[in-house]
Amino acid sequence: MQQRRIGDSGPAVSTVALGSWLTYSGGIGREQTEACTRAAMDAGVTLFDTANVYGRGAAERAWGEILADYPRDSYVLATKAFFPMGPRDRGLSRAQVHKQLDGSLERLRTDYVDLFQCHRYDDATPLEETMAALTEVVEAGKARHVGFSEWPAEKIEAAARMPGVVRFVSSQPQYSALWRRPEREVIPVCERHGISQIVWSPLAQGVLTGKYEPGERVPGDSRAASRDMNRFIKQWLNDRTLRAVQALRPVAEEAGVTLSQLALAWVLHQRNVTAVIVGATRPEQVRENVAASDVRLSEDTLRAIDDALRTAVVS
């Protein structure tokens, strides 16, 4: 498993990370969650990404139980806060940063997280207050490093220039061969300030696996068929996008990889990317995705990917 450092000062982590968003928050059962987590550990995954809001704590509790069997220094644990955990519990005020992180630590059965992330930008709280609170939790040893997800470029810049506060090491954007919007502003500003990308949805909710075909019903065992997990995939289930994805098949065959590995390797070949976060409902999916860490794509292959997807890319 390849490893890369998070930002200029964060820890080194596996370039393929395991996420728990739709799956381990209730999309699949406890047995499958444990099987996938253990498969990831066995395959060399060291970065595990979750959030307090995933299943209102369910994903954190599951990993708190499972990861307790492994030495704490053998993995890097990341969680997030911002979205509502109750009628009055949301956002990134000083009180909420402390309260939500304490709740996460209790569910995760650990004294600290390696990476505490602001799940979105909080327009209702002054940036100075949020950054001061993040500085406090780092100084208290409850979080080793801090990051953010889907922040506007101007807020990233403002935080980076703020004196006397902790520095971000990571950005967590949606980014894939189909969704390239972070390339406009977020990645350039992060590069200037020593912040790297830990990417969510690198497979575009599974569409880049090629399992969804134009004009066909979605497979019954797929994420798109699950009411618990299909809310975000619908934007990609149109014939134009699905035809473009099918055009990647000969590209993957020529490269000697699966479509999933091709899509993950594409992201890992982009600048400023530390890791891709994958979800998995079966251990074999974990093993297939992890293999993308070692895939090297030629310039010809990268151009062929761009050509195949040119009618479907969002940039």
Helical percentage: 25-40%
Low-confidence stretches: none
Would you list the SSEs in sequence order as H and E? Answer: EEEHHEHEHEHEHEHEHHHEHH
What does the radius of gyration come to? 19 Å
Instruction: Please identify the oligomeric state.
Output: single chain
For the record, the CATH architecture stands as Alpha-Beta Barrel
Number of E-state strands: 10
What is the CATH class name?
Alpha Beta
Strand order of the largest sheet: 3-4-5-6-7-8-9-10
Number of helices: 12
Q: Sketch the major β-sheet.
A: 8 strands, parallel, barrel
Number of domains: 1
Shape verdict: globular
CATH structural fold name: TIM Barrel
CATH superfamily descriptor: NADP-dependent oxidoreductase domain
CA-to-CA gap between the ends?
30 Å
Mean pLDDT over all positions: 94
